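REVIEWER CHECKLIST
Item 1: Sequence provided? yes
Item 2: Single chain? yes
Item 3: Sequence as submitted:
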Amino acid sequence: MTQQRSIPTRVWVDILLLGLIWGASFLAIRLALFEIGFVTSVAHRVFWAALILWGWVWVRGFDVPRGARVWGAFLVMGLLNNVIPFSLMAWGQLHIETGLTSVFNAATAIFGVVVAALILPDERMTLRKASGVGLGFAGVAVTIGLDSFQSLDLRSLAQLAVVGGTISYAFASVWARMRLSGLRPEVAAAGMLTGSSLVMVPAAFLIDGVPSFALSWQATLSVGYYVVFATAGAYLLYYRILATAGAANTMLVTLIIPPVSIILGALVLSEALPPNVFAGLALLILGLVILDGRLLPKRKTAPARPKA
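Item 4: Structure as written out by the authors:
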């Protein structure tokens, strides 16, 4: 059984900070959607964040890949990690609460285990993982609500769209491991966002029309927040945590995001979530804890016998 890395205090601060940043991003996105279309919202997010990250790459002097194959991988990564999930979740937020969106987002790690087990030969499904995944799926079902499975109204479709976004994130994590593992994370993130921009900027012009910058201060600050902090800055912070604490410890961020989003949605937008959402979140968190494994009792191993 692999041992979890101990987490230094500085990394705990980074994990908490990233959870707060991403938790608040759901509110920022919803505030921006009051004034701009969801496609334009995503286009702003990926285009400006790409420019910021390329500036970071230039300042740090990192090598930029030039091969067509790696740029094709960037495009696919952009579709899986940005275009599809950002668009589905932004559209979903037009019809469901921000806190509810963040609860479904917490299922990303659950779906990631399933997709990895199906595609990657070294990520087999163990009993512990299956137990965590089963609880996670139950959490998603409870959060959606049994009534939603009987009639597909707009709210039900919005919830399914957000879940679809989390599944796309899961495929993105596998794609990154298969195709982008040899690159610096900052370069991979900048390339991914560039691929996303090649899709979303033309889509914004075609679907929403020429973007207007005559926005209220609230919408301007919201766009600025999720571009600078929740996308460009968050990617840099995420990869720093990943490098110092490992993937298992980085997953702890997932547990921080929903409470932050739920509290902000209640304070700013007066959102009130039904009890089934909190029950589903509890099941999701329990599933994530089981997947993480650190709070489970450790099996004692027999001492090795001395060799003759």
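Item 5: Key structural point noted by reviewer: The mean pLDDT is 91.
Item 6: Recommendation: ____
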